Amino acid sequence: MFTEKLKTAVNEWLTNEDLNEWYFESFRDENCKLLPPQEAFERIDKVIPILLNQTDESVLIELAEVILCLARTSGTTEVPSALESNKGLIKAVFSDKCDYAKHKLKEVLGYYRMG
């Protein structure tokens, strides 16, 4: 269910020019912030495949924000398996993006002390 909601949010973002950053803020409020810690942790692994299939810089930034929100909600710095096993691919996806996008990825990796 979460995966479908996230994919729908991404597609809406890409096709509706009237949406702004509050769209994803609302998504995080409804789908990330009020979860039990274990469920938030498990959802991070569901975000990674969606992130890896994106090229849109703004979507990548928002997905990094979703990961950060889930990480904070989970309350642990244990590295999610999908993040750990795809670290190189994730870095490659962000490599040609703006400094702000790269900073968001650095923030995600820094949270988990993955540098």
Provide a compact summary of the structure.
This protein has 115 residues and is mostly helical.
Architecture overview:
This protein is mainly α and 115 residues long. The chain has one domain (2-111). Helices cover 74% and strands 0% of the residues. It has seven helices and no strands. It has helices at residues 2-15, 21-31, 37-52, 57-74, 81-85, 87-94, 99-111. It is globular and about 35 Å long. The model has no long low-confidence stretch (mean pLDDT 96).
What attributes does this structure have?
mainly alpha, 7 helices, 115 residues, globular
Number of beta-strand segments = 0
Give unreliable regions as ranges: none
As a whole number of angstroms, the C-alpha radius of gyration is: 13 Å
- What percentage of amino acids are in beta strands? under 5%
Q: Give the distance, in angstroms, between the N- and C-terminal Cα atoms.
A: 31 Å
Report the structural category.
Answer: mainly alpha
Major β-sheet profile: none
Shape label? globular
Written as H for each helix and E for each strand, in order along the chain, the element string is HHHHHHH
Share of helix, binned: over 70%
Mean pLDDT: 96
If helices are DSSP runs of H or I spanning 4 or more residues, what is the number of helices? 7
Number of separate structural domains: 1
